[in-house]
Amino acid sequence: MNKLTIIKIGGNVIDDPKSLDQFLTDFAQRTEPAILVHGGGKIATQIGNKLGIEAKMVDGRRITDAETLDLVTMVYGGLTNKKIVAQLQSKGFNAIGLTGADGNVMLAKKRPVKKIDYGFVGDITADGVNTSLLQSMLNQGVNPVFGALTHDGEGHMLNTNADTIASVLAVAMSREFEVELVYCFEQPGVLSDFENKVVIPVLEPKNYQEYKDSGVINSGMIPKLDNAFDALNAGVKSVRIIQFSDLNQAEAGTLIRL
Amino acid sequence: MNKLTIIKIGGNVIDDPKSLDQFLTDFAQRTEPAILVHGGGKIATQIGNKLGIEAKMVDGRRITDAETLDLVTMVYGGLTNKKIVAQLQSKGFNAIGLTGADGNVMLAKKRPVKKIDYGFVGDITADGVNTSLLQSMLNQGVNPVFGALTHDGEGHMLNTNADTIASVLAVAMSREFEVELVYCFEQPGVLSDFENKVVIPVLEPKNYQEYKDSGVINSGMIPKLDNAFDALNAGVKSVRIIQFSDLNQAEAGTLIRL
User: Which residues are annotated as site, described as Transition state stabilizer (chains A, B) (predicted)?
Assistant: First the structure.
């Protein structure tokens, strides 16, 4: 099986032009197929503020109403995505910007309204991924760069969490590739000691459970790590959580495996 | 040779949701490969106004400064492009949104500064088109939808006229396909009598010259028609200028041929 790396970056990289440029320089040095997944960073909020679009929250959860959907479609799907693609091209790395609507590569279901109406938010599973088109692009040396957007097949774009897009893509592509999923953070990995930045080098189900029981792992990390183990159980070869500046350091960060 | 239709729509279709929906319904009925090229319409100006980005003009020519480039990248490459793609998907037509940076499909040269500095504007030729990636997509039943954006290969997106993108694509793709280039207008074709909407059914070099000499053809149409004849001379099979509501009317509008 060929190798494929799926890398997710967040706002901390995107918001700082120098960090982004260094990250993309590192990313462009890869010789094996890769897919990059990004959100939009603070620029979406800044442009939203200028346009008079306020962040909508219900019970502490972010809501995507119609105007917020337009905002993220512009920023994630247009501004941020195309800037990243153009920069990668300049570094000799052939990238193609995609949302889930493009080539129907990621079909989502609009989240059903229960207690909260999240608005135009898309939930996805590996079955909704058009792996054959992605595989064809990768075979031609064209590497997808995903904005955190999907569609419902009924004419609407949908807002989908970038972490989720990365893990669902990883699971879907693991049918055809040996997939490594990499989450880039501001921290040097999953920490056992936040103050002294002590990184847990390897997380497996057993020590993960111990760290959870003893409260060593920050509660905010638990959904991300549960998600990582779910991806491994669904066929992904390995998950790595690293600092974005360590992309090409083979042993950096936390390796998560079964 | 397989047939390929390249269709350009302008703001008059994009700005009116009903017209756009009807146009995309007609477009989605096509069974042969097609590429759609669009600009951004008034929505770019409206969002620009809200963001405090004013249209910059020098000697009557529009200038693309850095903030205007961000604006058109958001709107043409994100909002308008992804809305069109999602709507086409809902109509059962597999589309993929592209700018010139994506897959390096259209490499441009930033327009040199002479009397006027046009800013981030890209000039293109058929040699800058990556026809093999486009052909591979079309072979897989995935039809490109182009926003009017290119890139310079040095990390910058560039603003490029949608009419020009359509004609350059048509010339480049005519090496592999029998290409029909269609410009959708608000008028039912090239008119010999504007008041009574009398359409010139066929324009060939000889009667085109006569119409120009007699002043029958509106001077604003001349650069477009010169451009159409250039495309024919460079290998495009036929050019048609039609009203956007007549897309599937075989005999509608003005047919331009050698």
Answer: 8, 224
